[in-house]
Design brief:
The chain is α/β, with parallel strands linked by helices. The chain has one domain (11-257): Alpha-Beta Barrel (TIM Barrel). It has 10 helices and 8 strands. The chain binds 2-phosphoglycolic acid (PGA). The site of 2-phosphoglycolic acid has 13 residues, from strand 8.
């Protein structure tokens, strides 16, 4: 079987900066402070996904064996008539190694599983690791959210053959735990979700492939809960929003995990 997206011995920590910060100067400051933080790169793969506008320049100065770069999204085709979009070819030429696909904030503005599936395929074509984001908006008592998660996984991976799925990373982000004023998910509940997601993957790709596919957690991760979410939740890494813009907090997350 082919190698998975990153080594099993490491955790993948992805920083999603979203539409922040407001200037390149501030973006540089985050990196300069983060560089002073000590963490063990043998145990962690760190990926920063800044806005496109800053990525190229930041990567020139800060890309290293400790810090990799990613995009927050890409377009699903390489059609030159796509105003405002960024292609996977551009991502590849910028040496971007990871791309977030189907983040809940993009799903909220109409991105469908069908489009997400095309984006994943395009990333794989360019040898970029897609991080497929899934997650329910709310938890209905009748368990309907489980069907939604199942549908998101099946439909978002519908264009991806069994032979290529080993390069995909899945990020489970319950939308109710994402953003300001929210709390992260309980780590034991997270463990139940990772089992549920694995079961779906087993039914799609068989045990051998499914058990190798990395699952990340995202939603109000901070320096206090990161280790527990990884250990109890049994996930392979974290997708970090707000806390990744604060170099001290993000540095502490990396330190605590290494
Ligand atoms: P948060 O965001 O860490 O600020 O909750 C996570 C995300 O949206 O990826």
């Amino acid at each position: 079987m082919k190698k998975r997206a990153f080594p099993k011995t490491k955790k993948l920590i992805v920083a999603n900066w979203k539409m922040n910060p407001e200037s390149f100067k501030e973006a540089k400051k985050i990196f300069d402070l983060l560089r002073k933080k000590k963490f063990n790169a043998n145990k962690i793969v760190t990926v920063i996904c800044p806005p496109y506008l800053f990525e190229n320049e930041l990567a020139k100065s800060y890309r290293s064996n400790k810090i990799k770069f990613g995009f927050q999204d890409v377009h699903f085709e390489n059609d030159e008539k796509s105003t405002g979009e960024i292609s996977t070819e551009m991502a590849k030429n910028s040496k971007v190694e990871y791309v977030l696909v189907g983040h809940s904030e993009r799903r909220q503005i109409g991105e469908t599983n069908e489009v997400i599936s095309k984006k994943i395929k395009k990333c794989l074509d360019e040898k970029i690791t897609p991080i497929l984001c899934i997650g329910e908006d709310e938890r209905h008592e009748n368990g309907d959210y489980l069907n939604l998660i199942k549908e998101q996984i099946i439909e978002s991976l519908s264009d991806i053959p069994k032979t290529r799925v080993h390069d995909v990373v899945i990020a489970y982000e319950p939308v109710w735990a994402v953003g300001k004023g929210k709390n992260s998910m309980d780590s034991h509940e997270l463990h139940q979700m990772t089992i549920f997601i694995k079961k779906i993957l087993v039914s799609l790709y068989g045990k051998k492939i499914a058990m190798e596919l990395p699952i990340l957690y995202g939603g109000s991760v901070d320096a206090d809960n990161a280790l527990e979410l990884i250990k109890q939740g049994q996930v392979d890494g974290l997708l970090v929003g707000r806390s990744s813009l604060n170099s001290h907090v993000f540095g502490d997350i990396l330190k605590n995990l290494s």
